[in-house]
Amino acid sequence: MASLQEYGMNFNPRMKVNFEGGDLTSDAGLLLYKEFDHKLGLSQTVKQLLVVNDPVHHRDHPNSDVALQKIYQHLCGYHTEPRDHFVLDLDSSGFAAFGKQHGANYNHHYAQNEFHPLF
């Protein structure tokens, strides 16, 4: 019997989602994407329409499954090549300055003169 906090998945009716605690996983939200995929028929469409002319015959997984895996991987935030993305990293920590250097100011928190990149 389903409660207000328990949902069955259409793509697999034996699978239930509830919000009572118990067994938790950080990837459970992916089931909602799978349910949406099932409603739209995305996986079936990809399997029907994706044709790759590749002479490799020793493949374990069809190209359509690999493409769908990449889609779900991207939805989860699991990117395979994070070094290709631009990361703006501003470190606001100061650098100690000694003597009377131009641009150095007193930092009360660290009780010393330092350069701060934001000032």
What key attributes describe this structure?
single chain, 119 residues, alpha+beta, 3-stranded antiparallel beta sheet, two-stranded antiparallel sheet, elongated
Task: Write up this protein.
The protein has 119 residues and is of the alpha+beta class. It folds into 2 domains: 77 residues, no CATH class; 32 residues, no CATH class. It contains 3 helices and 5 strands, in the order ββαααβββ. The protein has a 3-stranded antiparallel sheet, with no helix packed on it. The protein has a two-stranded antiparallel sheet with strand order 1-2. Strand 1 and strand 2 form a beta hairpin. It starts with 5 loop residues before the first strand and ends with a strand. InterPro entries: Tnp_DDE_dom. This is Transposase DDE domain-containing protein.
